[in-house]
Design a protein that fits this description.
Strand content: under 5%
Largest sheet: none
Radius of gyration: 20 Å
Helix content: 55-70%
Number of strands: 0
Shape: flat
Distance between the termini: 10 Å
Structural class: mainly alpha
Length: 123
């Protein structure tokens, strides 16, 4: 493993400061350019609010993982996971979507992606 580069390093703590700034900006945009229904966010189903928490968790984990395995490996693993999950969602028609059966073409594509991951990760 290579030593970390010298100089200023972005850490999860320093990146979260940018997230706070973004939250404030989005709040102000909603306040001044939205439809003025700030309290409408409390009427949405609570499970829909988990997207923000999961997104923050994803960014936090990616910051930590990229330092250990690299950007290419991290992104390839994310894409592989998304393809597997989207294939499951399509196959069963979850979330009201059209059912798209899992076939050999999709299996071959996912297998190729996992082969690429294996080639990236091997030393």
């Amino acid at each position: 493993m290579h030593p970390p580069p010298k100089g200023k390093q972005e850490t999860p703590t320093s990146i979260s400061g940018g997230g706070s700034f973004g939250t404030i900006v989005l709040f102000l945009v909603q306040l001044f350019f939205g439809k003025g229904e700030l309290l409408a966010m409390f009427s949405v189903p609570k499970w829909q609010l988990t997207g923000g928490i999961l997104g923050a968790f994803y960014v936090f984990v990616m910051v930590l993982i990229v330092l250990k395995v690299g950007v290419a490996n991290s992104l390839a693993a994310v894409i592989a996971g998304q393809l597997v999950m989207s294939s499951i969602i399509d196959h069963f028609g979850l979330f009201g979507g059209q059912r798209i059966p899992f076939d050999m073409t999709r299996l071959a594509a996912i297998a190729c992606l996992f082969l690429a991951l294996w080639l990236f990760f091997r030393k």
